[in-house]
Each structure stands twice: as C-alpha cells, then as structure tokens.
Amino acid sequence: MWQEMSNPAVLAKIGRRLKDIRIKQNMTQGELAERAGMSILTVANIEKGKPVSMLLFLCVIRELGLLENLELLVPETKISPIELKRMQGKKRHRVRHTKDNSHE
C-alpha cells in the first residue's frame, strides 16, 4: 500500500492518522502543541500532511505515546553470530563507490 503512494500522499495519510489518534486521546491541537513545545499551526500542518522537521515530528509522536512504534519503522540491524565473527574489528561506517562499481 505505502509503496504505491507518492511522498505527499504518505505525509497526508500519516497526518490524518496522527489527528485521529489525538482526537481519540481527547486532546485538542492546542494541548498537543503546548505539550510538544510547538505552535498550534505546526500541529495543524503535521495533521494536514505538510512537511515538517524530523524533530517536530518526533515531539508529536512522543506526546501521543507513539515513540516506541519507531522500532517497527526502523528496526535495529541484526547480525548473525557467524557474520559478527567475520566482521570483528571491521565495522562499516560508510559506503564508498569507486568509478568501476558506482551506480550511475
């Protein structure tokens, strides 16, 4: 479902869901804004699916009690014991492409 949607459509759907959760928790936009340390306009923009900073988004989902759900969105990378032994001391910190294997 999400893969077929454009980025603006995804933002709009997330905004609607956050609004539904806020209302279900019997919270006004003003209350959420005050608790999250932002303006009512920012909360309204998030609920309308307008782009906001990651920090503001995190403040809203924290106040709605949804922060733990990030584990599902961005799971921790699991490494098998065999792979861990092979990589011991060789943790990758970045990806670098050479001219021969770069993706153009």
UniProtKB/TrEMBL annotation:
<feature type="domain" description="HTH cro/C1-type">
    <location>
        <begin position="18"/>
        <end position="50"/>
    </location>
</feature>
<dbReference type="InterPro" id="IPR001387">
    <property type="entry name" value="Cro/C1-type_HTH"/>
</dbReference>
<protein>
    <submittedName>
        <fullName>Helix-turn-helix transcriptional regulator</fullName>
    </submittedName>
</protein>
<dbReference type="InterPro" id="IPR010982">
    <property type="entry name" value="Lambda_DNA-bd_dom_sf"/>
</dbReference>
<dbReference type="Pfam" id="PF01381">
    <property type="entry name" value="HTH_3"/>
</dbReference>
